[in-house]
Amino acid sequence: MNRIIINYYFFLLTLCLISSTAVAQQYNFKNYTTKNGLASSIVNNIFQDSKGYLWLGTQGGGVSRFDGKTFLNYTKADGLISNDVTYITEDKQGNIWMATSEGVSKYDGAKFYNYTDKEGLSKGVVYWIYVDASNAIWFAIQEGGVNKYDGKTFTSFTTKDGLPSNNVYCIVQDKNQNYWFGLSNGIARYDGNRITSYDKLPQVNNKVFFSALSDSKGNIWFGGTSSMGVVKYNGNTFESIAVPAEVKDDFFGSIIEDTKGNIWFATDHGALKLAKNKTFHLFNEKQGLSSNSVLSLG
User: Fold this and answer.
1) pTM, rounded to two decimals
2) Do 155 and 266 fall into the same domain?
């Protein structure tokens, strides 16, 4: 097993475990639904922690943790700040951080700790959480810009600090330790001192970017909404990636890199793989997915 994909459709959720062989590249899908114990039929995000558990952030059902056999669910009744969970990640101490529509929850394995505007977090829906090398926690917030949490206090970055918009949806860091933000109208970079906006470039102008990836070669990938496609930054220039015609108008909700260096995109028509030889391969219902609509990869 080299990759796990959430196949997330309006009415039906399926967790697909994908196994492959190096020669034939055959992918076998094992499908899981709410009948198997998932907290909700709508899943926004999937994350695999350092212990091997899969965490699934759902819409309305809280969080499901999957150990490969069974699902354990957490909701507001257990201390989670909201049952609408948009993103999940892990810090250097093994704490699980969960972004929600009402703030952020941290789970230390025994208890939930919640953060809202009362603790200094900017108001808005938190869409993304990024943990940097110093264990600082970064939050992308719709209408709230970017927040950084050092373990004690929150620091906010907004249009007043140079962001082209306060609607921020994703955060990654490049090999030079610059922070990259995907926004509602372009891309911005923070070098630790100042913010540089790239919202005027034709490749990113007025485009909404909901997903991002910093790959092993130093490239930064951004996934857009319908008709906005994929943009790659190679360290010098931005390039609009020509994707297959069947996905060119799709929503690219997630981007990952597998252990072989292939880049995967979640699209409305399946899981799109960009191989190292620069060829695309689309995996959908024909290969065993219960639906073509894939919005989260993990």
Assistant:
1) 0.87
2) yes
